[in-house]
Amino acid sequence: MTEWSKRTKAVHAGTRRSQYGEISEAMFLTQAFAYPTAEAAEARFIEAGEDEFIYARYGNPTNRMFEDRLAMLEGTEDAFACTSGMAAVNGALMALTQAGDHVVSSRALFGSCLYVLEEVLGRFGVDITLVDGTDNAAWDAAIRPDTKLVFLEAISNPTLEVIDLAHVVKVAHASDALVVVDNAMPTPVFSYAAKLGADLVVYSTTKHVDGQGRMLGGAICGSRDLIRGPIETYMKHTGGAINPFAAWTHLKALETLDLRVRAQADSTMQVAEALAGHAKLSRLSYPQHPSHPQHAVAMEQSPSGGTVLAIEVKGGKEACFRFLNALEIFTISNNFADAKSIATHPATTTHQRLPQDQKDTLGISDGLVRLSIGLEDPEDLIRDLKQALAAV
What we know:
The protein has 392 residues and is of the alpha/beta class. The chain folds into two domains: 6-253, Type I PLP-dependent aspartate aminotransferase-like (Major domain) (Aspartate Aminotransferase, domain 2, 3-Layer(aba) Sandwich); 257-390, Alpha-Beta Complex (Aspartate Aminotransferase, domain 1), CATH 3.90.1150. The chain contains 14 helices and twelve strands. 49% of the residues are buried.
């Protein structure tokens, strides 16, 4: 199985069949599990076997299939499936830190990730240092001998900055610091985090894995020692495990993940090429487009920049809203990585509550629009974007 391609793993990895021999994965909707004897119950609570379960908050056969399949895709030993992407981020960071620890993070993060770092971990006495993630020298200076953990988004949301992950991993591991990577933008299909040495890879499986606007979900992928040690212990006691119906929906979605994401990524590159240099735009950001500031690093790390690009409309918020309201195919929403193309105005939605100085530092201007490219015909999407820009 380890020699299978990602496309094959996404269909078959981790499958568990009941005595009925079902083809489609079974969904086990149960809170708890029965034991044949009191002695068997005692033994399972002492140490549960590979296919033995205790309570839905601890584990479930459907959840385990999803965890095994995703871990195989990511190239890690294990995974823990969570209720959402933010549950995964919070779980990974909280499970591995305590008061007095030092954490270094890239500053270009999703607003909720910044909240967990600065407000939650900071409130409990964790020392947080934020750096320009694209500056290797900044990582070198910030990571100390006592640094416990390094956190970053491989490709930042929403400005699509690309971090030299191999460099960060090398510097962090030299100080025995763990590296936790939020990997929503690169996608499980084009992921390179585990290959480059990240200790934990965190996903919002709402994005791409479900990818069709149905279910929240998240996952933490990594070594068995970390996942079945501090991660599982924290998550099972704090209630962050995914529910079996969401896990089952994700399992079925994984069967088409490779097909969907590759088609979306190809379309995203076409859109980037069509909009590059447009007179109504002051900026276009897509990692694999030659105009991207970290283009060389992006190309070295991955063959694709994913399914999202960012543009900056000239004229600020008023012009930007005119553009958004003129769109016919794109849906105005705050999600991304969906089968339907989505346009987001981060300054007034996902990153609205950030102080203005932080928005300025991160490049989240009033003209910035995050475009998530779906499964529609790319030519239709390009026509839609151009006609909307003509309304500005």
